[in-house]
Amino acid sequence: MAVTSTSARSAPERLSAGELAVTQLLLTHGPATRGDLGDRLNLSYASMSRVARSLIGGGIAVEDLEPPSAIGRPRQILTAVPGARHVVGCKLTSDTAYGVVCDLFGEVKATARAALPEPDADGVVPVAATAKVIAQLAAKLGRKVPALDGIGVSIGGVVEDQSIVVEGTFLGWRDVDLATPLRERTGLPVIISNDVAALAREELWFGAGRTHSTFGLITVGAGLGFGAVREGIPVAKTIDNGHLLSHSPVDTRGPRCALGHRGCVAAYLNREDVEAQASAEAGRPVTFADLIEARAAGDRSATARLDAAARALGHLVCTFAGALQTTCIVLAGEDVAVLADTASMNKVIADRLRPGQAETQRCSLDISTASLTFTDWARGAAVTTTQAIL
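^ that's the sequence the OP posted. Answer follows.
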């Protein structure tokens, strides 16, 4: 039985490829005429007219005359309708579910949070109880909008088929079907995704994807995360959950990561590794926040450690950009602000971009930075779900 106390819209048919392409353009670039949209998507006048009629009939878009001007006839402008869809997005940490409800444009209409059940003796967070918490959170958020069209959940780890958590890094899960019990409780479509992949999908529509068809996303926080979009297509699942990039070498004389690699990216950027190294050096527990505070106070050891992390991030940015063959990298996460766009990072990037004497090709990187709150992570899950149900 569904536990939601808000109404759920009867599931509409998914959009055709043409309808989805037009909707994406309206969401990412704003209102446009049928002619402009048809030209951008190489659709004939007749095809564009059919798409427009379908979107208007389905409530996804409206069409109005543009304000009259002194020259020529007013044109008809298609505009996406924000309230055409509402979805709940939920980000799971090891102990908390953070939720948002968003409209078609990914605008957050309300937020909520709830504690997850305590892990059992084996360190596994109970799945059925977690599904109940998420369903109750969705019911609470659903009361803020006319109706819900779906629920999205993002987690750190490996997800398959938008439903199975093959590896839930912070929850102790292995091969867990989270979508089915949640769908049974709510009666809504449910999309489960890797949290960084969800952020990449959000960036595709409402961030870097507006200007770059191929880009990479790196998150630095409780762990290292990687997302990628190639020619407008999000990479749904990495082959290694980011392991290869995380443990690529930076300095063979550097500190060791938890797996024993000397001077790899994780040794410099993974929060647990950095805190363990700083604690061992100080002979007392030291957190990442402590390092930031100590650097601000002029502590040389903390400054050196964070500068080394910034240099590692610079190498990681260049390596990832080269592998993807993109000029756009998005940096995000709780710890990224203190490292990004620093002299240490920028010096590494400038050196990596410097061409040889005989080389004529020049490259520049477009690097954007966003410190993420858990609301932002949950919004990624919501946008991913909107894309799926469309």
